[in-house]
Amino acid sequence: MKAVQFHRFGGPDVLQYEDAPKPQITEKDVLVRVHAVGLNPPDWYLREGFKALTPEWRPKVDFPAIAGTDISGVVEAVGDDVSGFSVGDEVYSMVRFPSGLAGGSRGYAEYVAVSPSELAHKPKGIDHVRAAAAPMSLLTAWQFLIDVGHDESNPLQPHRHKPVPLEGKTVLVNGAAGGVGHFALQLAKWRGAHVIAVASGKNEALLRDLGADKFIDYTRQAPEDVVREVDLVVDGVGGPKSGRFLRTLKRGGTLFPIFSLGFEGADEARERGVTVSTTQVRSSGTQLEEIAPLLSDGTIKVVIDGTYLLEQASDAHARAEQGHIQGKIVLTVR
């Protein structure tokens, strides 16, 4: 088969479209012929060698490596012990995450082997491009806001993450036009929240169309200077600056930094009576099946920044490095 592999860490130019062994499935696996692949930040973290992590946190990567978790396609073959899926079924998945973080997910390819526990039937109302764009970002928003869906220990904090009630609450979503952000906005609205969307001005029309009740252009005013008494902040950007949103929250409020590494506001959060919680998204075919009707009927819309052919993966990564992505970037397979 053809796949996009890399033989060393580096920039987008290390991604090579070349021949690779076609996956051989066991009796417990499903072989999927891939039609589209969604890009996510872990793809370029892997390609760069996880340089943002301290050495002891960096997973060992065996070369050649193939990035990519989010796929949509058609079942090519089914192992003897697999039930619930048949050859010809249209399916989508977030493959082996976080277990495949070090290149074992292997989504940038014409074929991928998937555990049925991570696989779901593709929403009938959307195409493969939108289905491939959804899994990681939408499962992240879902597991933060609706249902964690697992009891695995959290490597990012000592306590289990717990979603909070949303109906009638005021929720601020920072980075609302991004992959996780535009899904978090829609899920909060679906659950009855009043949503304040924070993004650059070019995204206002899109975010209001997705349901935002109020919009703040961060290039004109800092949201932490003008917003107060919010119940929940979902910070889709996260990192060291996430603590600035503590002042926007009411006492008893909650901050969910999607990317929590470097958060420095723990002491201030305690003083303000604010709960800070995060979690790491995990693959779940069960949740993707649950979400599928919401994607199919348009309750949740998938925004596409752009599409590239699989062999143009390096161009797609170069676009991702420019930042300010509106929704998701997707690779299509010929």
UniProtKB/TrEMBL annotation:
<keyword id="KW-0560">Oxidoreductase</keyword>
<feature type="domain" description="Enoyl reductase (ER)">
    <location>
        <begin position="10"/>
        <end position="331"/>
    </location>
</feature>
<dbReference type="InterPro" id="IPR020843">
    <property type="entry name" value="ER"/>
</dbReference>
<dbReference type="Pfam" id="PF13602">
    <property type="entry name" value="ADH_zinc_N_2"/>
</dbReference>
<protein>
    <submittedName>
        <fullName>NADP-dependent oxidoreductase</fullName>
        <ecNumber>1.-.-.-</ecNumber>
    </submittedName>
</protein>
<dbReference type="Pfam" id="PF08240">
    <property type="entry name" value="ADH_N"/>
</dbReference>
<dbReference type="InterPro" id="IPR013154">
    <property type="entry name" value="ADH-like_N"/>
</dbReference>
<dbReference type="InterPro" id="IPR036291">
    <property type="entry name" value="NAD(P)-bd_dom_sf"/>
</dbReference>
<dbReference type="GO" id="GO:0016491">
    <property type="term" value="F:oxidoreductase activity"/>
</dbReference>
<dbReference type="GO" id="GO:0008270">
    <property type="term" value="F:zinc ion binding"/>
</dbReference>
<dbReference type="InterPro" id="IPR002364">
    <property type="entry name" value="Quin_OxRdtase/zeta-crystal_CS"/>
</dbReference>
<dbReference type="InterPro" id="IPR011032">
    <property type="entry name" value="GroES-like_sf"/>
</dbReference>
<dbReference type="InterPro" id="IPR052585">
    <property type="entry name" value="Lipid_raft_assoc_Zn_ADH"/>
</dbReference>
